[in-house]
Amino acid sequence: MSQSKYEYVRTYEESTDNVLLKDCYIVVRVDGHKFHKFSKCHDLFKPNDKRCLDLMNESAKHVMRAFFPNIVMAYGQSDEFSFIIRRVSDLYKRRQNKITSLIVSSFSSAFVFYWSQYFSNQPQNACHQSVPLQYPPAFDGRCILYPNSKVVMDYLRWLPLQYPPAFDGRCILYPNSKVVMDYLRWRQVDCHINNLYNTTFHALTGHYTKYVLNSTDNSYTFTPNWTQSAGADPPLPLTPREATERLSKTISSDKHEILFTEYGINYNNELQQFKKGSVIVLDISQQLMQSIVSKNKKKKKSLDVKGDEEDIDINSYLSVSYIDVIKEEFWSQNQSLLT
Ligand SMILES: Nc1nc2c(ncn2[C@@H]2O[C@H](COP(=O)(O)OP(=O)(O)OP(=O)(O)O)[C@@H](O)[C@H]2O)c(=O)[nH]1
Ligand SMILES: [Mg+2]
């Protein structure tokens, strides 16, 4: 094919298309852009909205399926998710731009795609059809009878996206498994510190949402603004400024004490998902990995691009838990993860 005279501009791309150093773990972290505003606009429950955190997990699982089997683990809390890519991965020939941009965009579109499953009981797309107006609209009113509180709650949970959310992304290289473990410990400590602060802050301001989990079927009930009705004589809610001032010189044990003595909240009973964040592991045996590698070799495909894994139910290899990754125990039980 003959080349146009403008073809030379392509050479300029090479200088910014970094190839990531071999034999290092690649970590890509996505983070919600201005999620403070996003959560306010969508009236998310404080300090944690389980619907949003579950949606983040669903979006992360989509990314792990899309790049199967390159991402061995993911960790998420608040509006962020970190993806750990195998040390020996040759995903997109380790081109940084390609890897970061694809992970961020897959995550963002999954977040929008699955939104209605978590924030609505309406069929997909029902709330997003936009049809040009043909004539001035009129509104009717309707009265609906619901037989029980579950259906009323489902109705109230119906919440269309108000605007397209965005996520930023960054890519970091780590030279060995110890630093990757410390990276994940760093994110989990951050989750713990922020969650304890936010839980106490929103208790003080009266906006704390209490969740009760039914561990037999994983269903849950929740009560927004719970502290306003806590006990017979609940403390008066503070303004955000007063709450910030009250917490300014407190240490961790002070916050536990405020929660327990003033509101009857035992922080230890908060959902593990809120206290620890979400850990998603690709639990795939070396044997299965080997068979995928050899199958792809036969088809002259490398591990970098997802092969024909239609026969594999990838979801069955993805496990979500709210486990401690700071202690050694997790790592000794998952020794093959960071090989
Ligand atoms: N109410 C509520 N807010 C949440 C929840 N998860 C995340 N957020 C909000 O998301 C913010 C995430 O923090 P940051 O990433 O530091 O802040 P940001 O506003 O996203 O700013 P940038 O990341 O710099 O764009 C928190 O401060 C909360 O305001 C949730 O479950 N409920
Ligand atoms: Mg953010």
TrEMBL record:
It comes from the Eukaryota. PANTHER family: TRNA(HIS) GUANYLYLTRANSFERASE-RELATED. Binds 2 magnesium ions per subunit. Transmembrane segments: none annotated. Residues 179-205, 238-326 form the Thg1 C-terminal domain. GO terms for biological process: tRNA modification. Its EC number is 2.7.7.79. Keywords: GTP-binding, Magnesium, Metal-binding, Nucleotide-binding, Nucleotidyltransferase, Transferase, tRNA processing. This is tRNA(His) guanylyltransferase. Residues 6-147 form the tRNAHis guanylyltransferase catalytic domain. Mg(2+) 2 binds at D31, D79. It comes from Oppiella nova. Its cofactor is Mg(2+).
